[in-house]
Amino acid sequence: MVNEENKIQKSRSFNFRKIFEIPSRLAHSIGGDSGSDEEDMDDNIGNVQFISQGGTPSVPLENHQMDNEPVSSLTQDAAKAGNTRKDKEPTDMELMKERFAKLLLGEDMSGGGKGVSSALALSNAITNLAASVFGEQSKLEPMSQKRKDRWRKEIDWLLSVTDYIVEFVPAQQKSKDGTNMEIMVTQQRRDLVMNIPALKKLDAMLIDCLDNFKDAKEFWYVSKDAEESEKGVQRTDKWWLPTIKVPPEGLSDASRRWLQYQKDCVNQVLKASMAINAQILAEMEVPENYIESLPKNGRSSLGDSIYKNITVEFFDPEQFLSTMDMSSEHKVLDLKNRIEASIVIWKRKMHQKDGKSSWVPAVSLEKRELFEERAETILLLLKHRFPGIPQSSLEISKIQYNRDVGHAVLESYSRVLESLANTVMSRIEDVLYADSVTQDPSLAIAKWNPSAESSPQQPLSGMSTPRGETEMLSSAAETPTSMTLSDFMGWNMEQGEGDISKNQETFCPR
């Protein structure tokens, strides 16, 4: 009897000793210093199951952790392996939750309430999405189906916010006794009802235009790192882009006309998106921070030479621009900043009639209004002549301090479409340039800016306004852009050229 009790006591002490020994042996064996006997024991560890004093199986070793004991490396590796198996591609619902969580936090992931406004967060989200999907469109080629699906899905998520931006409008309601009474109901805000469908149509037109280039066989791209004999033609100011190769005799007449047709279609999208963007920016309030940074009068903003050219008796906007130094993007942007600042100053003078801050004594309101119209004409010409120019100080300030979510969505969506359309048109012009250089090498120049040369030369009386161009948007949306090169081969060019010129007249009244 005594012997049996001693055996039980020894077995219990052995089991408890094992509980404390095995984790240390595991850690020791993983370090690679264990002997053969320890390795034999470690091989059987997975099969060990301990019996508690109550006779029931205890927790297996891999799930057992002593109090105040660090987890072994083997346990950590097993946990990582389990997490790896669980890591899958996030679902659409998870992606949408993450996207809207960032919007609600105002891009402040700490949750400390120091984030930007909802309008700016939404504007940044649309801008970042476009940058990640489109990136640098270096070639004329269709977008991959994955990129298309991502763009359409995520832009719809962000645009869904506008479905809940509503305004009250009167409506008729018939009561049970048959009498009509007027009530107020909600509907989507008017500017969103007009512009969101139009921008979606422009979006689809741009993507369809890129899809059309899947049949383009007469030109192809060569890496800029290729051998000198295999390189094609590229402008020196676009050295980072792949070079364009065309046949030795150049493009065929049909391909050249088809490329010009695609360029005209993209140009319509560009002008329409520019018009919407300009209209939305004009409707945004000028921030007080920007106003405080302005000089006291318009002459100080423009400078003496520019001011004299604008205030002459007989003003010609084209002649004015010909006298300005616009040799670089920085100088064009500086001119735009000066003119926009003077417009804001003159408008405030006309509305506030502050005699103390009068910029020129005895200048009538009619003259100030005339000078403002001339400055706006110059801005519109600069916008058409340099569509890829960066945003001005006034535009950046408006976007930064804007609190209207509807305006933020319209401005950012139209801006990214404007940028993409300008890029696609520039790539088409690169191909046409390579074709012209192949036929006549003397046409090769260091800097070639056909957008500036082919900009609409409109007289002052025929200048279109952003609002007027927006009203003509419906006709542009009906312009067919899904014509492939094979369709174009049998196209009646006389009728086609008439249609193109007609569409150009729609956007560029002369």
TrEMBL record:
Ranges of compositional bias, category Polar residues: 46-56, 451-464
Region (Disordered): 27-91, 448-478
Record keywords, A-Z: Guanine-nucleotide releasing factor
Entry-linked InterPro entries: PRONE_dom, RopGEF
Record's keyword annotation contains Transmembrane: no
Single Gene Ontology MF annotation: guanyl-nucleotide exchange factor activity
Coiled coil regions in record: none
Ranges of residues in domain PRONE: 83-445
PROSITE patterns named among the record's database cross-references: PRONE
Highest taxon of source: Eukaryota
PANTHER family listed in its UniProt record: ROP GUANINE NUCLEOTIDE EXCHANGE FACTOR 1 (PTHR33101), ROP GUANINE NUCLEOTIDE EXCHANGE FACTOR 12 (PTHR33101:SF10)
Protein name: Rho guanine nucleotide exchange factor 8
Species whose genome carries this gene: Nicotiana attenuata (Coyote tobacco)
Encoding gene per record: ROPGEF8_1
